Amino acid sequence: MTLIVCAMADLADQAERRRPSGIVSLLNPDQSAPELPINVPWLVLRFNDIAVPAEGLVSPDLDTVARLLTFAAAFPPGTSLLLHCWMGISRSPAAAFILACARNPSRPEEALARALRLAAPSATPNPFLVRLADDRLGRDGRMSAAIARIGRGSEAAVGKPFVLATTP
Fold first, then answer.
1. Which pLDDT belongs to residue 108?
2. Is the pTM of this model over 0.70?
3. How far is CA 146 from CA 27, 30, 149, in A?
4. Domain spans of the chain?
5. Could you give the dihedral angle defined by the CA atoms of residues 18, 19, 21 and 26, in that order, rounded to the nearest 10 degrees?
């Protein structure tokens, strides 16, 4: 599976150019969903981009991760998913990393995190979402550790679109 990641501002262009098999929107709870330029299966996940629970904000939870994994599992190898969030820096790169780990259960998390960093120098995957997926996928903290080791991405106001390939 090919994972295409971008900011909301690049969604229409990336969808039209790349023609993904499905789209995942990771949005704030009060954010309007974008209009899609193509008709494909679409999953909208709503939570704030936070690293730890905070009063008055919506945290991702295990259901969020389960919905992401279930949606992606419906797409066979050779297809593509376009994942986007507001800026393309935190939530959508985290979702791409999660799906790469899910599709590659025997590949080391470090290798997948390094591939993410090479593809997206500005990515700073949401650690809360990664931690939840780490638990759900039974990776025993290795996903979170790998993301912590690649550290914060380079400074960017908006992430540039990137592609992360998974093998199976």
1. 97
2. yes
3. 24, 31, 5
4. 2-165
5. 70
